[in-house]
């Protein structure tokens, strides 16, 4: 689409049959042969019966689309060749190549076509980057909400996939791939598998939560904390304005902590680590299965992605060459063709790229430092707000709840804002400085940098609460002070287990991020953009009459849609959610439940966006999800370490075990709370830090604080006690044992589940054998026809037909080869 001052000018590209056939052969596109389908056999009779029962039970959940594969029939396909036209069943050339394939062929031609009037610029992407053209996109098949009887793929996808009313149905993956291409088809297949895998993890998470609810009355430590007769007098939480307080006032926090901090969470953490491994292994198997049915098993890396240079790279190379003083270099540049540039090696050396790498590295460090500084600012807010609220008697009783709730909301708002900023900056600046040569390299670097920034942004507040908050507060009489007299904040859950505040932080950020992003950023913002663009088009003078006619053309309708910008935002959102589900699942077992509920809507939301709100993307052929799999695998491995430390350091699971088996007199947890509280002589409080106007019921000589330290009457008062070192040793031992055990089980699961399904590997061998037999049969038929003796006195028509049959295998001079040319229309 070319934008002129008098209005928008559309250029419609037509590709005739000869062009499609030539490019299909060049791109090695696999197409069905005359032996179109063959049956894929299941394993044994038991497997057949089981598959038949399963298919019958799931029939109400299947989408009603003809292309929905039941994995029983397979096309026998072979790379297209003009010299072997007799192998293919070419009845109608208009429909021999589907729309996605023709779109890909036309886009490949446009990407490598030079424009001599634009400084020999290479491809349509360079022309768009230089504002010569505004956009290039394939057309949708038609309107998705038309009331006519004609049914196209877009309308079928809308009815059976892109509506919230069909949320319970499986996705028509084959039709998605046919309409949008393999890359988008693999994304929705991955999203569907991830969503289905959340079902068992959600069930186990609910069971773990219900176990905590059922055993809350049997939890001895929380009962001891709630017992008013124990009368544990705790040290003040702040200087001067805070009074002594009774531990029983934290009864609610202690009981709530047991819902998540119980022995079942350890089992659930191990289960989720194995769940992540199972998910990745099953995705590799599904990816292989889809690759087999989609004829992607034999493609090479150079067929998967285009290696054409990016416009920014071409511009950088030309600027470098034009800076030279030798005129012959300039003349050589002007006389060169883009095809010559593609054959040459990378023209930018490390000296040319070093300033870009330096700027790139500095920008990433700056963004990460910005995130850390904001987290630190929220810490300052916690400390100062807690001190300010403690001065007022009316707000003193709700200091912890108020500070925690407001701080988490501030963190959520900051995360959402920085997500949008980092998403924009990482694409604009993240890789532009280093100037990657190819689009694939650019996309991989962009994904890594965007993920790094969003990972730090989303999880840094949670890491702080889990592993740092309350660890450096000091002790009564020797507190750590910052900012001119402000005490470091203690963990909210210090008296009754440290997992509750982490659960609050994780749940609010996860749920808030999902709800706000789904409702505002993914639904509201695109609608506002569409409305703004529509108003702009109506008010702009000089628009073409077709845009305002009663029946606008399809290119006008598609131009009013939002441009397709790639799958990175969709993948990134799900990867961050995968991190919430796996990294800190020990503190929030209900995370898979909320992720499942979100994804049931997310699948249809993304489907509706692709079908109704975006321009149709160019079909991209790919055999896997690329670098995203490596990121998922890295998160899965890191989750083992993070959950080990959450259980060992953040929760009270290890201290309870140590007390029960080393210090308890009867092997139970009776006396555990008293065991974890140390004594402090209040007369040793620093001058000016004692509570002013204390209203405590009794005179206080000793107050208690949660730590393992020697009492004031010991030879070494307030030093770490023997129990402290015992608990610390047990924690470190648990981390090592937990990590190695889960890693071993993950490797065992990986080894037990083959990457390639057995039936697929057998069918690949069978297909090769069938293909050889088919070739031999067709060659025999071809030679048989060619060796038939001609009549003694052939007529002119018979002689012409004989010549035509002889010439047909070579693909030259075939009568009628242009009778019904195929076409592909792309707006440029």
Describe it.
- The chain has 828 residues and is mainly α.
- The protein is built from 29 helices and 17 strands.
- The strands form 8 sheets. It has a 3-stranded antiparallel beta sheet. It has a two-stranded antiparallel sheet with strand order 1-2. The chain has a two-stranded antiparallel ribbon with strand order 4-5.
- A hairpin with a 2-residue loop joins strand 11 and strand 12.
- The radius of gyration is 34 Å and the shape is elongated.
- The protein starts with a strand and ends with a strand.
How many helices does DSSP assign?
29
| Spatial order of strands in the largest sheet | 3-17-8
Number of β-strand runs? 17
Low-pLDDT runs: 325-346, 543-548, 793-828
Binned strand content: 5-15%
How would you sum up this structure in a few lines?
It is found in: Cell membrane; Membrane. By secondary structure, this protein is mainly alpha-helical.
Task: Name the features.
828 residues; mainly alpha; two-stranded antiparallel ribbon; 7% strand; disordered C terminus
Please give the structural blueprint.
Elements: E1 2-4, E2 7-9, E3 12-13, H1 17-26, E4 30-39, H2 45-57, E5 73-79, H3 93-96, H4 99-111, E6 114-115, E7 121-122, H5 123-129, E8 137-138, H6 153-160, H7 173-180, H8 182-214, H9 220-226, E9 233-234, E10 245-246, H10 251-258, H11 263-293, H12 301-304, H13 311-322, H14 327-335, H15 338-343, H16 350-390, H17 393-396, H18 399-428, H19 439-468, E11 474-475, E12 478-479, E13 481-482, E14 486-487, H20 500-539, H21 554-559, H22 568-583, H23 591-613, H24 627-650, H25 653-663, H26 672-676, E15 677-681, E16 702-706, H27 722-752, H28 758-786, H29 796-807, E17 826-827
Antiparallel strand pairs: 1-2, 3-17, 4-5, 6-7, 8-17, 9-10, 11-12, 13-14, 15-16
Helix pairs in contact: 4-5, 7-8, 8-11, 8-23, 9-10, 11-24, 11-27, 16-18, 16-19, 18-19, 18-20, 19-20, 19-22, 19-24, 20-23, 22-23, 22-24, 24-27
């Amino acid at each position: 689409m070319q934008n002129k001052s008098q209005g928008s000018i559309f250029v419609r590209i037509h590709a005739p049959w000869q062009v499609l056939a030539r490019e299909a052969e060049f791109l090695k596109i696999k197409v069905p042969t005359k032996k179109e389908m063959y049956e894929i056999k299941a394993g044994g009779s038991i497997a057949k019966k089981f598959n038949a029962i399963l298919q019958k039970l799931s029939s109400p959940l299947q989408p009603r689309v003809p292309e929905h594969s039941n994995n029983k029939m397979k096309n026998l396909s072979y790379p297209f060749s003009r010299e072997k036209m007799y192998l293919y069943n070419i009845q109608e050339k208009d429909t021999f190549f589907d729309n996605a394939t023709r779109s890909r062929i036309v886009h490949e031609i446009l990407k490598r076509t030079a424009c001599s009037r634009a400084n020999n610029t290479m491809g349509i992407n360079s022309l768009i980057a230089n504002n010569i053209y505004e956009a290039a996109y394939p057309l949708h098949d038609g309107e998705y909400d038309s009331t006519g009887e004609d049914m196209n793929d877009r309308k079928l996808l809308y009815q059976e996939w892109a509506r919230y009313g069909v949320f319970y149905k499986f996705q028509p993956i084959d039709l998605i791939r046919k309409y949008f291409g393999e890359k988008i088809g693999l994304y929705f297949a991955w999203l569907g598998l991830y969503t289905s895998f959340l079902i068992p993890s959600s069930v186990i998470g609910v069971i773990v939560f219900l176990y905590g609810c059922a055993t809350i009355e049997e939890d001895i430590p929380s009962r001891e904390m709630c017992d008013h007769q124990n009368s544990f007098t705790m040290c003040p939480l702040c200087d001067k304005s805070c009074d002594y307080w009774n531990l029983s006032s934290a009864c609610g926090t202690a009981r709530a902590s047991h819902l998540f901090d119980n022995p079942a969470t350890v089992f659930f953490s191990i289960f989720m680590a194995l769940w992540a491994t199972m998910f990745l292994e099953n995705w590799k198997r599904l990816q292989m299965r889809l690759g087999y049915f989609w004829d992607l098993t034999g493609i090479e890396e150079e067929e998967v992605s285009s290696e054409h240079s990016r416009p920014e790279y071409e511009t950088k190379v030309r600027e470098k060459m034009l800076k030279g003083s030798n005129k012959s270099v300039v003349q050589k540049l002007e006389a060169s063709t883009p095809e010559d540039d593609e054959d040459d090696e990378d023209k930018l050396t490390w000296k040319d790229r070093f300033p870009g790498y330096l700027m790139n590295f500095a920008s990433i460090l700056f963004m990460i430092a910005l995130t850390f500084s904001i987290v630190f600012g929220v810490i300052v807010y916690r400390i100062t707000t807690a001190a300010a609220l403690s001065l007022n008697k009316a707000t003193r009783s709700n200091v912890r709840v108020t500070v925690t709730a407001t701080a988490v909301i501030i963190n959520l708002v900051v995360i959402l804002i920085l997500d949008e900023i980092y998403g924009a900056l990482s694409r604009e600046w993240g890789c532009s400085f280093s100037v990657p040569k190819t689009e694939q390299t650019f996309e991989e670097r962009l994904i890594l940098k965007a993920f790094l920034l969003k990972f730090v942004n989303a999880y840094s507040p949670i890491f702080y609460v889990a592993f740092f908050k309350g660890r450096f507060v000091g002790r009564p009489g020797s507190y750590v002070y910052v900012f001119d007299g402000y005490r470091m904040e203690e963990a909210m859950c210090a008296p009754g287990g440290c997992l509750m505040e982490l659960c609050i932080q994780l749940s609010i950020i996860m749920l808030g991020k999902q709800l706000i992003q789904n409702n505002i950023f993914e639904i509201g913002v695109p609608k506002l953009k569409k409305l703004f663009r529509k108003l702009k088009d109506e008010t702009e003078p000089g628009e073409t009459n077709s845009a305002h006619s009663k029946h606008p053309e399809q290119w006008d309708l598609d131009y009013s849609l939002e441009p397709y910008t790639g799958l990175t935002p969709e993948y990134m959102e799900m990867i961050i959610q995968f991190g919430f589900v796996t990294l800190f699942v020990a503190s929030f077992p209900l995370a898979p439940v909320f992720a499942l509920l979100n994804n049931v809507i997310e699948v249809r939301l993304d489907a509706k966006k692709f079908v109704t709100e975006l321009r149709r993307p160019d079909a991209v052929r790919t055999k896997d999800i690329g670098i995203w799999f490596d990121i998922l695998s890295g998160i899965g491995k890191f989750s083992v370490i993070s959950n080990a430390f959450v259980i060992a350091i953040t929760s009270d699971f290890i201290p309870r075990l140590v007390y029960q088996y080393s210090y308890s007199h009867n092997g139970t947890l009776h006396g555990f709370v008293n065991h974890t509280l140390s004594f402090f002589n209040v007369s040793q409080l620093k001058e000016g830090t004692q509570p002013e106007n204390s209203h405590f019921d009794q005179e206080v000589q000793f107050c208690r604080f949660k730590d393992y330290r020697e009492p004031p009457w010991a030879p070494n008062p307030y030093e770490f006690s023997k129990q402290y070192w015992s608990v610390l040793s047990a924690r470190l031992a648990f981390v090592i044992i937990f990590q190695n055990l889960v890693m071993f089980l993950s490797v065992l699961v990986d080894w037990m589940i083959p990457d390639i399904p057995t039936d697929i590997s057998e069918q690949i061998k069978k297909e090769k054998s069938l293909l050889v037999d088919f070739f031999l049969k067709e060659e025999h038929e071809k030679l048989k026809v060619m060796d038939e003796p001609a009549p003694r006195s052939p007529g002119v028509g018979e002689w012409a037909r004989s010549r035509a049959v002889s010439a047909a295998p070579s693909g030259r001079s075939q009568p009628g080869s242009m009778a019904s040319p195929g076409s592909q229309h792309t707006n440029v």
